[in-house]
Design brief:
The protein has helices at residues 19-22, 27-41, 53-62, 82-91, 129-146; strands at residues 2-7, 44-49, 69-73, 95-99, 121-124. The protein is of the alpha/beta class. The protein starts with a strand and ends with a helix. The structure holds 1,3,4-trihydroxy-5-OXO-cyclohexanecarboxylic acid. The site of 1,3,4-trihydroxy-5-OXO-cyclohexanecarboxylic acid (DQA) has 10 residues, from loops.
Amino acid sequence: LSILIVHGPNLNLLGRREPGVYGQQTLADINDRLTQAANQLEAELTFFQSNSEGALIDAIQAALDRHHGLVINPGAYTHTSVAIRDAIAAVAIPTVEVHLSNIHRRESFRHHSYIAPVAIGQICGFGSESYLLGLQALVSYLQTQAA
Ligand code: DQA
């Protein structure tokens, strides 16, 4: 299985960015852990991070016919981007939305996700573990689909 991992805006600063909210791990740390987990799951990962909405949309579109699944942390675009939601709907690649923080117990503007209705599901609140749980959930979803 080929899985695309997409990190949205400001996630390049993980480790330095509000560590009380987002933890001490850097994006490279998270990607390393995902790679280790993927080896066990026999999945192959491709990583992409951008601060720009258009670049994220281009990456999602480019996943068409190349990746079986998508794990995405859209960052603040979660709460604003109809365009990213439409890109996910357009490619129709099974998608899991992940967040480090529990967006539902934070400011009210973070409670709504434009992405959730086009995702299989959402995992939030487990810090960097959210990504690992998201990857596991996506792989088992894809395996069930294939069976
Ligand atoms: C986030 C939550 C968003 O509300 C925020 O804008 C982020 C990170 C998270 O992973 O907890 O940039 O997606």
